[in-house]
């Protein structure tokens, strides 16, 4: 089950899992390192950004769940 709010920590865990630096992760998402860092520090990341990160980092929904202990949010949110 997915919590109501997804913290940026969930994206950070995926980044570490794939071995990316913040700069690399930002490039994959089409944003700068500072904007990416802000996303990781956020208390609530929008579902579409979670799914964009999953895809950009080459992860699966199963990877996300394994790393975070809960499923990613539904894509239609």
The class by helix and strand makeup works out as mainly alpha
Count of individual beta strands: 0
> How helix-rich are the residues, as a percent range?
55-70%
Report the end-to-end length measured between terminal Cα atoms: 14 Å
Mean of pLDDT: 93
Tell the overall outline.
globular
Number of domains: 1
Short précis:
The protein has 77 residues and is mainly α. It is 58% helix and 0% strand. It is globular.
Question: Overview of this structure, please?
Answer:
This protein has 77 residues and is mainly alpha-helical. The chain has one domain: 434 Repressor (Amino-terminal Domain). 58% of the residues lie in helices and 0% in strands. It has 5 helices and no strands. Helix 1 crosses helix 5 and helix 2 packs across helix 3. The longest helix has 10 residues. The protein is globular. The relative contact order is 0.24.
């Amino acid at each position: 089950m997915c919590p109501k709010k997804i913290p940026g920590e969930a994206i950070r865990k995926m980044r570490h899992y794939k071995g990316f630096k913040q700069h690399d992760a930002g490039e994959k998402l089409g944003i700068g390192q500072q904007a990416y860092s802000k996303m990781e520090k956020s208390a609530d990341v929008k579902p579409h950004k979670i799914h964009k990160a999953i895809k950009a980092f080459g992860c699966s929904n199963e990877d996300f769940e394994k790393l975070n202990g809960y499923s990613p949010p539904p894509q239609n949110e």
